[in-house]
Design a protein that fits this description.
This is Iron chelate uptake ABC transporter family permease subunit. Belongs to the binding-protein-dependent transport system permease family. FecCD subfamily. It is a multi-pass membrane protein. The protein is mainly alpha-helical. The protein has 14 helices and two strands. Helix 2 packs antiparallel against helix 4 and helix 5 runs parallel beside helix 7.
């Protein structure tokens, strides 16, 4: 057996070494390195600035959304109610609008982060939970529970997680052929989406008219009537997953590398990819259980965040904030555009996301669907 000479031995680039997060990592240009006991983080400066701007826009959108409706409430009065001061608008803002807003905010955060994780692993902008069957799996199980009266509304988020995990497992099994190729993953996922959508329609025919109507509204993705009983389980889930999300923001950079480089740096790619996918599935399924399958948020938010930050990979935090901003703004418009009729928020997100999906397909057809989504592609993530 011959030993490779020093001239032919591949050495990791500084960016690759930094992605591995080792103690002697080199800081790439445009990044700031933060160290803590037992951990270190690379933060892209532009991504941090974009995240700050998105957070400010999100806060402003929340205040406007709380004041918008049949009765316009000035921002000062909205902030007073949120701060806990008694006032004449406490019922409208604190009881009716605030729980719905919090639910939409958390749903957007979850969908945005889930889309970023799954697109990073698949290395394909088409690989979002609502396209590859995860949201449809969660939806099918939830609609079956609603139709046949299995469990209460409090257990629906957990049933959604079970359905999303089952759908993800089936897609993974059927898409695996000596590795997980992005084009095959998307095509198999679309096939499962169609099959699960048909199964969901079958469940709708088995229930009574009132139950079927409730399930159909839920399937469009709606925040109407959502309260603390939907938002609190989602909030606790996100808080419980926060340590894993911090790990995911770091692991994304390693998964972004080509397989040979990542393996040479000691990254266990299969385990890391499995962890990222499981995290994305849990996030998307829990959000689906809280508000229904709000389509295209997980598809659009990561790519918008990536273009705003101008990073090679998909920024996790910016994707989550973008998803939250999209849902909050879409819900405010859904409540006011055709007042007094309120549209489900999923109608507006689909109206924006469907043309974007067609544009992605057309662009992918010109350059090949795999494109940068091949197994040795370089689409990754930063915090």
């Amino acid at each position: 057996m011959s030993t490779p000479s020093p001239a032919t031995t591949a050495s990791p680039s500084p960016a690759a070494a930094a992605a591995a997060g080792g103690p002697r990592a080199v800081r790439p240009a445009g990044y700031a390195l933060f160290r803590a006991p037992g951990a270190s983080f690379l933060v892209h400066r532009r991504s941090a600035a974009v995240a700050a701007v998105l957070a400010v826009l999100l806060a402003a959108a929340c205040v406007v959304a709380l004041g918008t409706g049949r009765t316009w409430i000035p921002p000062g009065d909205v902030l007073a109610v949120v701060a806990g001061r008694p006032g004449p608008h406490e019922l409208v803002v604190g009881t009716l609008r605030l729980p719905r807003l919090v639910t939409g905010l958390l749903v957007g955060l979850a969908f945005g982060a889930a889309g970023a994780l799954i697109q990073t692993v698949a290395r394909n902008p088409l690989a979002s939970p609502d396209v590859i069957g995860i949201s449809h799996g969660a939806g099918a199980v939830t609609v079956a529970a609603i139709t046949f009266g299995i469990g209460s509304w409090q257990v629906l988020p957990w049933l959604s997680v079970a359905g999303g995990l089952l759908a993800a497992a089936l897609v993974h099994v059927f898409a695996w052929r000596d590795g997980l190729h992005a084009a095959r993953l998307v095509l198999v996922g679309i096939g499962f989406s169609v099959a699960l959508a048909s199964l969901t329609q079958l469940f709708l025919t088995k229930g009574d008219r009132l139950t079927a109507q409730q399930a159909k509204v839920w399937l469009t993705g709606s925040l109407n009537g959502r309260g603390w009983e939907q938002s609190l389980p989602l909030l606790w889930t996100l808080l419980a997953l926060l340590p894993f999300l911090l790990w995911a923001a770091r692991a994304q950079r390693a998964v972004a590398l080509d397989d040979l480089t990542a393996t040479s740096l000691g990254v266990r790619l299969n385990r890391v990819r499995l962890g990222l996918v499981l995290l994305g599935v849990v996030l998307a399924s829990t959000a689906t259980g809280a508000a229904g399958p709000v389509d295209f948020v997980a598809l659009v938010a990561p790519q918008v965040a990536r273009r705003l930050t101008r990073t090679a990979g998909i920024p996790l935090l910016c994707s989550a904030l973008t998803g939250a901003l999209v849902v909050v703004v879409a819900d405010a418009l859904a409540r006011t555009l055709f007042a007094p009729t309120e549209l489900p928020v999923g109608v507006l997100t689909a109206a924006v996301g469907a043309p974007y999906l067609m544009w992605l397909i057309v662009r992918g057809g010109r350059s090949g669907l795999g494109g940068r989504g091949s197994r040795t592609g370089r689409t990754g993530g930063t915090l």
